[in-house]
Design goal:
The chain is mostly helical and 79 residues long. Helices cover 59% and strands 10% of the residues. It has one domain (2-74).
Length: 79
């Protein structure tokens, strides 16, 4: 199991997510982002707007995901 924060995943806070795979942690981050968006949390809304700009280019989005996947894979397992 590995840990990444909301900020590490493109978000706006230090909430930690723990998962065995990058796909799991990305899904947790996405769910958290949607909850914060619904609460109109300004820092998270700004982070989501930045992600939406990134998603306009498939190449940019794929590169971002691959970089985050690499970062996740290089993290040490939780003790």
């Amino acid at each position: 199991m590995k840990t990444m924060t909301c900020k590490q995943l493109g978000g706006a806070c230090d909430l930690e997510f723990q998962a065995d795979t990058f796909e799991e942690i990305a899904a947790m981050s996405k769910q958290h982002g949607m909850e914060m968006f619904q609460k109109h949390d300004d820092p998270h809304v700004k982070a989501m707007n930045a992600m939406q700009q990134l998603m306009k280019s498939a190449d940019s989005m794929n590169e971002w995901f691959e970089n985050k996947r690499k970062e996740f894979n290089e993290l040490p397992d939780n003790k």
